Amino acid sequence: MSDIYTRIFKVVQEIPAGRVSNYGTIAKFVGSPRGSRLVGWAMNKSHTSEEYVPAHRVVNRIGMLSGKHHFPGEDIMQQLLENEGIVVIDDQVQDFEKHFWDPMKELPEDFI
DNA sequence: AGCCTGACCTAGG
DNA sequence: TCCTAGGCCAGGC
After folding, report:
1. What is the reported pTM?
2. How many Cβ atoms sit within 10 Å of the Cβ of residue A80?
């Protein structure tokens, strides 16, 4: 497992319940500004991590659940989010800006 | 080595 | 405003 994954997982683990973030922002924060697709790949592999990685709290830039089909069951991702108080309609997080969690603002710059 | 694939993003028409 | 093409990084074959 390369170091970039470790960093991605580490940041995702910091996302509080009831908040969501997106791939591009995380990629930027871990030092790979154009590596948004890599973050998606990392989420795909996240179940191999020893630590729990709340991959369902990561959505794309417009708040859509683009990764729902990679969860073990239909609408599992949506249910996980709704358990945390987030409203999802048509694979779209409602009030996305309000729930958005930005590592650039919430975490210290030397977190990595 | 080379080509294809993705849980993405941005710019341009 | 919607749609497309291109660029991006790493992995799989």
Report:
1. 0.93
2. 17
- Reported as a single tens digit per residue, the pLDDT across A15-55 is 999 999 999 999 999 999 999 999 999 999 999 999 999 99
Fold assignment, A3-99: Arc Repressor Mutant, subunit A (1.10.10)
**Nearest nt to the A53 alpha carbon by C1':** B7
**Strand C contact nucleotides, protein CB < 7 Å:** 7-11
pLDDT category of residue A88 using cuts at 50, 70 and 90: very high
Question: How many angstroms separate the CA atoms of A48 and A112, rounded?
Answer: 21
Q: In this complex, which residue's CA is closest to the C1' atom of nucleotide B7?
A: A67
Are A23 and A36 in contact by the 8 Å Cβ rule? The answer is yes
Distance A48 CA to C4 C1' (A): 36
